[in-house]
Amino acid sequence: MNPVRIALLGCGTVGAEVVRLLHDQAADLTARIGAPLQLVGVAVRRLARDRGDLPVDPALFTTDALDLVKRDDVDIVVEVVGGIEPARTWLVEALRRGKSVVTANKALLAEDGPTLHAAALDGRADLYYEASVAGAIPLLRPLRESLHGDRITRVTGIVNGTTNFILSSMDETGAGFSEALDEATALGYAEADPTADVEGFDAAAKAAILASRAFHTRGRAADVHREGIIEVSAADMAGAKAMGCTIKLLCIAERSEAWDAAAESPVDGVSVRVHPAMIPRTHPLASVGGAFNAVFVEAEAAGQLMFYGQGAGGAPTASAVLGDIVAVARNRLAGVRASSESAYADLRIRAIGEVTTRYHISLDVADRAGVLAAVAGVFAGHGVSIATVHQSGRGNEAVLVIVTHRAPDAALAATVAELRTLDIVRSVASVLRVEGE
Ligand code: NDP
Ligand code: HSE
């Protein structure tokens, strides 16, 4: 049996576990694929780095990844380096040469997925990236294969483990954001620079990939409305609790109709957003604690589906990479490739202002006659319908908590802007979206 030859680009947290799995599961992998997998090169940045007891021949290491992907004795290129360049150059080169590519690089796929897909089509090569969204959780393959006969209406996910750890900790202990972030850093969940996680960039990249897959439309990270969790306070979490809710950083991609003024008809669109939101404790995503990830998929025929598991970490992510390696190795042996990118629907990406949702707004106000009427008048003036109002405190310490019915984001933004101008409103303490019934 001729081996299927692999070039591994990157041997860090994920790459080292890929090496281990290739070594430890070699016999089973051979039986499952019908040919052995052979590691023929490993590209890294630092040849001198101590890699412990990693089961790999030191002679395979190189710092020239481009040279490695060009080699004739490479069938599959596995990229676990990350970033846009030089990863894009390596992968385009590999795909155009007909080599199958497996990558975990969410940043690259969300920034410039179409270039990779075009190169895969040119080279008639496979491009698989299950590990790029939610680590070990099988998600992209079910969207790409199992659910291909259905019409997906909405995907709601917790796709960032670091922020879920922080928000779960705030919910459990009553801690503020900074305190919970410090705990996440001390326990190794948050990176030294947590910006990509806490500002929502990581989740936005994953949201773009998920939306592209679910709605057969090209979505990029730049199309995703993004808000992070740094402004979520202990008071917000307490307010959520008082409503029987918790707060999660959600990635939401949903199909909805929008009015096309030029065509004077409704058109299908898709909105993709990442922001903190209150969800009822009875919602399946509310019980996803710690650094776990979960994605809730709603489809017309299948109904509701939930995918849950470890969204990060070396071994869980390597599990998804190995699954892709087996799939592309089998395809090579069978002389086939998977269908290319499906972007036929080409849905319009809707601006956040058009998205409708419910809101929870806390206002610090003066407790005197006419205040509630004035506040309610501002909501009414922008067409935002109030569902409930609750007041606590008295005198100059009164707090009004208002929950709205569904309203367009633009109308809510205009309402909040006007509330800030009222003398009777000392401050708009918080504005949070409410998701889930
Ligand atoms: P690491 O930083 O741990 O490892 C990166 C690896 O790439 C290192 O081996 C490094 O070499 C190598 N490298 C960096 N620059 C170059 C270069 N110019 N040429 C050759 N090799 C280079 O990253 P992770 O393993 O954590 O992540 C890898 C990918 O997987 C990223 O795309 C990430 O987003 C994705 N991912 C990661 C998850 C995780 O939990 N870690 C989860 C899901 C996806 P050296 O060893 O010499 O430093
Ligand atoms: N930083 C990411 C997280 C890693 O916290 O989920 C996985 O993409």
Task: Describe, in plain words, how this protein is organized in 3D.
- With 437 residues, the chain is α/β, with parallel strands linked by helices.
- The chain folds into three domains: 4-135 and 314-334, Rossmann fold (3-Layer(aba) Sandwich), CATH 3.40.50; 142-310, Dihydrodipicolinate Reductase, domain 2; 353-434, ACT domain (Alpha-Beta Plaits, 2-Layer Sandwich), CATH 3.30.70.260.
- The protein has 14 helices and 18 strands.
- The strands form two sheets. Strands 7, 8, 9, 10, 11, 12, 13, 14, 15, 16, 17 and 18 form a twelve-stranded mixed beta sheet that branches. Strands 3-2-1-4-5-6 form a six-stranded parallel beta sheet, sandwiched between helices.
- Strand 11 (292-299) and strand 12 form a beta hairpin.
- Helix 4 packs parallel to helix 5 (106-123), helix 5 (106-123) runs parallel beside helix 10 and helix 13 (371-381) packs antiparallel against helix 14 (409-421).
- The protein is elongated and about 85 Å long.
- L-homoserine (HSE) binds at residues 135, 160-162, 197, 202, 311-312.
